[in-house]
Fold this sequence. Notes:
This protein is an alpha+beta fold. The chain folds into 2 domains: 4-86, Phosphorylase Kinase, domain 1, CATH 3.30.200; 94-213, Transferase(Phosphotransferase) domain 1 (Transferase(Phosphotransferase), domain 1, Orthogonal Bundle). It has helices spanning 42-62, 94-103, 106-132, 185-188, 195-213; strands spanning 4-12, 16-23, 29-36, 70-76, 80-86, 135-136, 145-148, 151-154, 161-162. Helix 3 (106-132) packs antiparallel against helix 5. The longest helix has 27 residues, at 106-132. The termini are far apart. Residues 4-219 form the Protein kinase domain. GO terms for molecular function: ATP binding; protein serine/threonine kinase activity. This is Kinase-like protein.
Amino acid sequence: EIPYTPLTLLGHGQKGVVEKVRHAHSSAIYARKTYRLSPRSARQRALDRAAYVREIEITRRLQKHRHIVRVVASYSTSDTLAVILEPAADGGDLKTYLARYAAGDVETRRDMQRTLYHAYGCLASGLAFMHSQRIRHRDVKPENILVHGTEVLFADFGISRDYSGKADSWTDGRADAFTAKYCAPEVQDQGVRSSRSDVWALGCVFLLLYSAVWESDVI
């Protein structure tokens, strides 16, 4: 029997859901990301499973850094694959956090500002570590950054690329997935991409933080 009890839905997408869960024995709270395997064909299910396993393996490689989510456990059923992650971010993702900040009163905003001020260094450190481990995130954006207490953490390595077997981080050809608002010009133009493309995306996130905290219309 799977020892995790669902508590609340944290998010969902085309390929699965993220829930807050409680461990049946320890009562510890985690996030559970459940991936649905394609019902179309055995080949597609195998491809899906390989992609999800790759995401879990990349997350495990990076989880020693304090600003990257950590894998606690993983398991599979006939039609799903699930990963248990910590922390179950109490502040939600950065997009949600900034919306709550914008709507908050003066006292609430003052408390939240401390987290936002620290976010710059935390995220820069996390991305530098990621690249030192020869991983490109490839989808840095507020929805993939979590807030827990006063900490911010990178999450969602679903389209990340491991370039540890290559001399450099460059790739070309068609960029199969990206978020236009945060992607570097070379990504949108289907040009040569590298770890520098992550740095551009994080710079866009930094501009968003600046705009929110200092109430500027810079973006």
